[in-house]
Amino acid sequence: MAIRIAMVAGEASGDLLASHLIRAIRHKIPDAEFFGIGGPKMQAEGFDVRWPCERLAVHGYVDALKRYRELSGIRRTLLKQVKAERPDAFIGVDAPDFNLWLERKIRGAGMPAIHFVSPSIWAWRGGRIKGIARAVSHMLCLFPFEPALYEQAGIPVTYVGHPLADTFPLQPDREHARELLGLPAAGRVIALLPGSRQSEVRNLAPTYIETAKLLLERHPEVSFVVPLATRETRQLFAEALCAAQAEELPIRMLFGHAVEAMTAADVVLVASGTASLEAALLKRPMVISYRIGKWQYRLMKRMAYLPWVGLPNILCNETVVPELLQDEATPPALADALERWLGDPEGCAQLAQRFDALHRQLRQNTAEKAAAAILPYLNRTPEWNPSRQPA
């Protein structure tokens, strides 16, 4: 019989990560079979999609509560299928709120449960590690500081690097990016990335537009690019431009092309999240900003462990780029912070060197390394080691 692996990936990022992992495992075990919850990229690799990963997407606490019964039903049905079909292993890709419960049940039923992408226990809710210890047979971490946290808790762990570091070139080509986007080779370009979710764009777009106005007053030659992930977020930004009577600003909205926009830019204004890591891998100076509901911000700030929210600062373990959050994220403050980068070529060059070192540290051939860590749990492979199996 063929090796069979159940998997759950949430959202588009998990679908991409899981598709690379499937390909890497198949390189070692060509007839391996995969099923569970996934997206189109996983399906293109031959994954049997029982539910599309879009069904797991929730937007905030309220949406999660509204959809709890639906999501719980999907999870319990999948658990029944896994118990009945007895795959050789289960791999949960990110989506910890959905996957950790499932992993605990599957591991309790005698099957290996591997979690790919560590929850942010280093940022907040560190008490989850006790539940993780009960749930997972092995944790696969994207960041180099994470394994020590799991080793202290006695959880088998492997650092596999970050997949973006594998796919992004060490030396980004700004000229090509500008040519691709139809931007002038000379002149200053600022990329504005207000986030991928509608709530993020709704909160940040007016502030970003006012910031652009201030910068244009100081630097009449500057232009702006705004990559937006969906039609809905593009419409929200267009409405914010209209409300601010700023339709004449030299702002070019893009449908996607966030990486190209950041590559082409001299400096980036970015909502905290994965986009800030992308900007770092592209060696771009940036200002990180974020704004959420007042009470939600107070709650998260009370529960946070680190002085930073941006991945570049967290990974460098110091403030290498400014973070202006919540009430500090005003147009004048953001404009001043962006302007400092524009006037500091030496500082930009030093930052690029720091980000190059970070890029090399994160570049680990993630999919291959993750596959190598998973193979010992597949008890019909040459690499099988019984001592690695869950009790």
Automatic annotation (TrEMBL):
<dbReference type="Pfam" id="PF02684">
    <property type="entry name" value="LpxB"/>
</dbReference>
<dbReference type="GO" id="GO:0005543">
    <property type="term" value="F:phospholipid binding"/>
</dbReference>
<keyword id="KW-0328">Glycosyltransferase</keyword>
<keyword id="KW-0443">Lipid metabolism</keyword>
<dbReference type="GO" id="GO:0016020">
    <property type="term" value="C:membrane"/>
</dbReference>
<comment type="similarity">
    <text>Belongs to the LpxB family.</text>
</comment>
<keyword id="KW-0441">Lipid A biosynthesis</keyword>
<dbReference type="InterPro" id="IPR003835">
    <property type="entry name" value="Glyco_trans_19"/>
</dbReference>
<protein>
    <recommendedName>
        <fullName>Lipid-A-disaccharide synthase</fullName>
        <ecNumber>2.4.1.182</ecNumber>
    </recommendedName>
</protein>
<keyword id="KW-0444">Lipid biosynthesis</keyword>
<comment type="function">
    <text>Condensation of UDP-2,3-diacylglucosamine and 2,3-diacylglucosamine-1-phosphate to form lipid A disaccharide, a precursor of lipid A, a phosphorylated glycolipid that anchors the lipopolysaccharide to the outer membrane of the cell.</text>
</comment>
<keyword id="KW-0808">Transferase</keyword>
<dbReference type="GO" id="GO:0009245">
    <property type="term" value="P:lipid A biosynthetic process"/>
</dbReference>
<dbReference type="GO" id="GO:0008915">
    <property type="term" value="F:lipid-A-disaccharide synthase activity"/>
</dbReference>
<comment type="pathway">
    <text>Bacterial outer membrane biogenesis; LPS lipid A biosynthesis.</text>
</comment>
